[in-house]
Amino acid sequence: NKVIELRSRPVGEPTLSDFNFEETEKPTASDGEILLKTEYVSVDPYLRGRMSDADSYVEPFELDKPISSAIVAKVVSSKNKRFDEGDYITAELDWKEYQLSDGKNVRKIDPNAAPLSANLGILGMTGITAYIGLTEIGQLKEGETLVVSGAAGAVGSVVGQIGKIKGCHVVGIAGSDEKIELLKSKFGFDEGINYKKTEAMGEAIAQASPDGVDVYFDNVAGRISDGVYQNMADFGRIVNCGAIALYNATEMPTGPRVEPMLIKKRVSMQGFIVGDHQDKFTEAVKQLGKWLGEGQLEYSETVVEGFENIPQAFLDLFEGKNKGKMIVKV
Ligand code: NDP
């Protein structure tokens, strides 16, 4: 029974040496328990924060203990009345091939409703983040201009498509020409900017958003965002969802001062954590599922095979190796 633990707290870019690969006994279920076999593992940028012991909104992972993330698993044996052998579930679980659970905070999923992995992406945390961030925090309205960074990723690709469903002009920023092509051909974005080929971000955004930016959905922060800030429209909203460009920084870089712009343009900036909005999850999943069913939403997944490749898949997020949701199939 393979297990992956946090071996050391990464300094700067995490590396494979920050992980322990262990073997343990396969457990057996006692009364009230289920034995779970891991099928799909979600790797997410926010796990980087949990690998550090800095004060945050979630507890840090402990050293020499398993890392956990959202997982889809199969019930292989059950001594819990709520679950039958063969059920599929999703929960925050340890990076273990097999593990026990008492069934608390475990949600059954219907394998016939959508592919199992979709529960970790489009119908899971990242889809929900896109929906709630854009509607509740961004207050996006029909006809507005929406700019999304990290646009070809799990959250960003959904944000842009919801923007199109709402009849907006949508501009995506991502890190390769192939991703820009995907934004336009598969996800229906109006404009795409490859930030790796663009020195003058401000000018590129001005060109792609001639009426100014009403909503900026930010997944990355740093230099890309500095360019967007120069182009905000009056009463614009900035949704601070993620800051992946800064997650491995050992010293915080400073950027241009934005306060005069915020005042002059009456712009608001709001950080948000999807977990604060549990009351909206059911609505979000229902709406995302409806759009999927109607063919109004598309999604991409990058699926890496093999339990032992979970850490590498996580590291690859920081290299932009994923299109859409990064998932490991065990
Ligand atoms: P993604 O699927 O977007 O994967 C990460 C992507 O980030 C990569 O594919 C890469 O794409 C891009 N990236 C990596 N390094 C950099 C960099 N230095 N500068 C610019 N872009 C970079 O991940 P998610 O969709 O899961 O998450 C997106 C963001 O949203 C993350 O910052 C995450 O922490 C945040 N998040 C926040 C939540 C909340 O509640 N606030 C909930 C869920 C996610 P590219 O090729 O374009 O560089």
Write structural notes for this entry.
β12, α7 and β13 form a beta-alpha-beta unit. The chain is 25% helix and 27% strand. The protein has 2 domains: 150 residues, Medium-chain alcohol dehydrogenases, catalytic domain (Quinone Oxidoreductase, Chain A, domain 1, Alpha-Beta Complex), CATH 3.90.180; 151 residues, 3-Layer(aba) Sandwich (Rossmann fold), CATH 3.40.50.720. It is built from 9 helices and 15 strands. α2 crosses α8. The model has no long low-confidence stretch (mean pLDDT 97). It is α/β, with parallel strands linked by helices and 330 residues long. The protein is globular, with a radius of gyration of 20 Å. The strands form 3 sheets. Strands 3, 4, 5, 6, 7, 14 and 15 form a 7-stranded mixed sheet that branches. A 6-stranded parallel sheet has the order 10-9-8-11-12-13, sandwiched between helices. A two-stranded antiparallel sheet has the order 1-2. The structure holds NADPH dihydro-nicotinamide-adenine-dinucleotide phosphate (NDP). NADPH dihydro-nicotinamide-adenine-dinucleotide phosphate (NDP) binds next to α2 and α3. This is Enoyl reductase (ER) domain-containing protein. Keywords: Oxidoreductase.
Task: Set down the secondary structure blueprint.
Blueprint (H helix, E strand, L loop, with lengths): L1 E5 L12 E5 L10 E9 L4 H4 L17 E11 L9 E7 L3 E4 L5 E3 L15 H13 L7 E5 L4 H12 L3 E6 L2 H9 L5 E4 L6 H8 L4 E6 L4 H7 L2 E9 L18 H7 L2 E4 L9 H13 L7 E5 L4 H8 L7 E5 L1
Helix pairs in contact: 2-3, 2-8, 5-6
The protein binds NADPH dihydro-nicotinamide-adenine-dinucleotide phosphate.
